[in-house]
Structure formats: structure tokens, C-alpha cells
Amino acid sequence: MSAEALKSRTFHLKVWGENACFTRPEMKVERVSYDVMTPSAARGILEAILWKPAIHWRISRIDVLNPIRWASVRRNEVGAVMIPRAGGLFVEDQRQQRAGLFLRDVAYVIHAFFEMTPKAGAQDNVKKFEEIFLRRAEKGQCFHRPYLGCREFAAHFELWSSESPEPKTIDESRDLGFMLYDIDFAGLEPMPLWFRAQIRNGRIHVPPAESTEVRR
How confident is the model at residue 78, as a pLDDT? Predict the structure, then answer.
């Protein structure tokens, strides 16, 4: 079967929310967001709507619809993981106050497609999963509530029709530097992948994972 037969059409999904935090991994203590959504966060939103072992989502473009705005807050976090067999966790002993630099009033259009994986069964095919995704997205169905980087920042979503005009993006072009692309779990240890992200007229073009633009 050809590669094209294993690849879906491109879907366009608008997502938005009051706050977002696409955490920069180099910030060890404080939570500081990237300026825009990362490809891995976009993939997570799509998988919240439809995830199956038979398909793998790939992001091709992210459109930034709202101006990039920031909010600085301080909040309480728990500095330990609860172990049930240890008798629970006393929050007051593990509470930590940390600063965070988050995004506010965000909106994006995610352009993505999926590819069939070797785990696809005999009854699995591209058209089947295209129809499932469209039906679920149109009805607002999801396996769990998608979020914008952090679980407390819920994401709203709706399909952007391919027949609609191109989304109106922000009038901005600049280099964002190296950004987390995704995590590769194929090896013995998870391996972060990076790419040089650039906003061009409000759009971020995401290279294929196999391209030389994606680095380990």
C-alpha cells in the first residue's frame, strides 16, 4: 500500500482558552511558557478527541489568532507525589509557592493529519478514522478534556471548515528560537526532539519529524 493511502486528509481544528502554559523545559523551578503552542501540545489536544494505536497524529502548521499576551501569577503546588501505600500525603508539609509566567486569552488553528501505524488491524483504514474524528469533533466529544499545556487550563475546540476562508492570524513575524517538538519514545529512554520555531505572518510551519530541521 502506498504512503498516500496510509495518510489522512488535513484537518483544521480551532482551539482557544483563557489561559495556557506550554512550559519551557529548561526552566527548572518556575513555570514559564513558550510564546505559542508547541507541536506536542497540539498533538495532545487531537489525541484527547481521538486516540487509537492504529493512528499517529502529525502537526503541519499552527496559526496564532490572538496577540501574544502574558500573565504573571504565584500559586501553590505540591512538591511530592502521593504514594497510596505510604498512607497518603499531608499537603501542608509539601506545599510550595512558585511563580509562573503564563499566556492569556489564546486561540490557535491546528492543521494536522494522521498516518496509519503498524498496529492497525485488518478492519482499520484511513476513511474509517477520518469519519470518527469528524463526528467526535463536530459533537464536541473527547476521551478527556483537552488542555492548553497544563491540565488546569482547559481548551475549547471546534472544527474549522476547509471551505471557510483562511483564519485571520496576528500580523507578526519573528524567530522564537529552539522549541520542544515532541518526545520520541521509540528507544530505551525518552528522547526530546527540537526545532527552530518561527512565526511568519502569524503562522508556524512545523517540519516533518524525519526532516533535518528536527534535532535530538
Answer: 59
Q: Write down the pLDDT at residue 187.
A: 82
Q: Are 23 and 150 in contact (CB under 8 A)?
A: yes
* 124: containing domain: 7-171
- DSSP sequence for 176-197: EEEEEEEEE-SSSS-EEEEEEE
Summary mean pLDDT of the chain:
90
Spatial contact of 73 and 102, defined as CB atoms under 8 Å apart: yes
193 domain residue, yes or no: no
C-alpha cell at 136: 467526535
Quick check: is 188 in a domain?
Answer: no
Distances in whole angstroms, Cα of residue 148 to Cα of each of 19, 53, 105, 106, 151 = 7, 23, 11, 9, 7
**Does residue 39 sit within a domain?**
yes
Structural contact between residues 13 and 109, judged by C-beta atoms closer than 8 angstroms: yes
